[in-house]
């Protein structure tokens, strides 16, 4: 006969399994650009990563574990990889690997997320804190929360100080001071002319590291998502 303790353990394990099953998230990563994009995904917790070449019209579907935090999806441009998946990208490169095992190098437009957080919420955003290389949409696959879009011609309009091949750098990369990097902690920095450049063109997106009030959004845990490069 099962003891109350064993029964409680069995019920708890069943609940955890049910939670994990119902709250894992599927991400459909779609390339609508007229050029090839090498999509990338990385998260340090739980450790996960990968990459895929996407020609125009192609989609990469990934399942992301419940409880994933600090997750990022981005696109890389002008890449050249050998048969072993080693090479280099002009923007968004991740240590010269097709299958990313870490974050990409600026500039790269980011879809960021933390799944199954307190109050059964996902936290999601588009970020230009690492600069901008490809227009992006980050949205739920159903109308359960807000569609986020950053689709402005930022590369063409990039300030001369931030211009770099294939993209528009974040100011912290060019000017590594607290004014632009916010390294001295909460409340240590404010919007700058450079961050306002990004914010005016992509009001849904983070423009500097402490831009939380206008840039961080929530969706119900268990939501599935689309990340679209060059959305219409």
Q: Explain this structure to me?
A:
With 232 residues, this protein is α+β, with helices and mostly antiparallel strands. Helix content is 18%, strand content 35%. It is built from five helices and 14 strands. Strands 2, 3, 5, 6, 7, 8 and 13 form a seven-stranded antiparallel beta sheet that branches. The protein has a five-stranded mixed beta sheet with strand order 4-1-14-9-10, with no helix packed on it. Strands 11-12 form a two-stranded antiparallel ribbon. The radius of gyration is 19 Å and the shape is globular. Mean pLDDT is 91; it is low at 1-21. It comes from Fraxinus pennsylvanica. Keywords: Disulfide bond, Signal. This is Thaumatin-like protein. Disulfide bonds join 33-230, 79-89, 94-100, 145-219, 150-202, 158-168, 172-181, 182-189.
Question: Notable features of this structure?
Answer:
Thaumatin; 7-stranded antiparallel beta sheet; 5-stranded mixed beta sheet; 14 strands; Osmotin/thaumatin-like_sf; disulfide bond; signal; Thaumatin-like protein
CATH class: Mainly Beta
Which structural category do the helix and sheet elements fall into? alpha+beta
Give the low-confidence spans: 1-21
Secondary-structure arrangement, i.e. CATH architecture: Sandwich
Helix content: 10-25%
- CATH fold node name: Thaumatin
Question: Cα distance, first to last residue?
Answer: 61 Å
As a percent range, the share of strand residues is 25-35%
Q: How many separate domains?
A: 1
The shape, in one word, is globular
Radius of gyration: 19 Å
The topology string of helices and strands comes to HEEEEEEEEEEHEEHHHEE
Q: What is the name of the CATH superfamily?
A: Thaumatin
* Average pLDDT, all residues: 91
């Amino acid at each position: 006969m099962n003891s109350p303790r064993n029964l409680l353990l069995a019920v708890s394990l069943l609940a955890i399994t049910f939670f994990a099953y119902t709250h894992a998230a599927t991400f459909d990563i779609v390339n609508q650009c007229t050029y090839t994009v090498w999509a990338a995904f990385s998260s340090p917790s739980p450790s996960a990563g990968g990459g895929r070449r996407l020609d125009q019209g192609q989609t990469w579907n990934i399942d992301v574990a419940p409880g994933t935090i600090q997750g990022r999806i981005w696109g890389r441009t002008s890449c050249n990889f050998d048969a072993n998946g080693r090479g280099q990208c002009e923007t968004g490169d991740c240590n010269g690997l097709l299958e990313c095992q870490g974050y990409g190098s600026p500039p790269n437009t980011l879809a960021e997320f933390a799944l199954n957080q307190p109050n059964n919420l996902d936290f999601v955003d588009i970020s230009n804190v690492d600069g901008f290389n490809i227009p992006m949409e980050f949205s739920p696959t159903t109308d359960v929360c807000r569609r986020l879009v950053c689709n402005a011609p930022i590369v063409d309009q990039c300030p001369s100080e931030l211009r770099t091949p294939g993209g528009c750098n974040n100011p912290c990369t060019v000017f590594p001071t607290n004014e632009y990097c916010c390294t001295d902690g909460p409340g240590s920095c404010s919007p700058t002319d450079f961050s306002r450049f990004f914010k005016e063109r992509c009001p849904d997106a983070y423009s500097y590291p402490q831009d939380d009030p206008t840039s961080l959004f929530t969706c119900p845990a268990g939501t599935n998502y689309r990340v679209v490069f060059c959305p219409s």
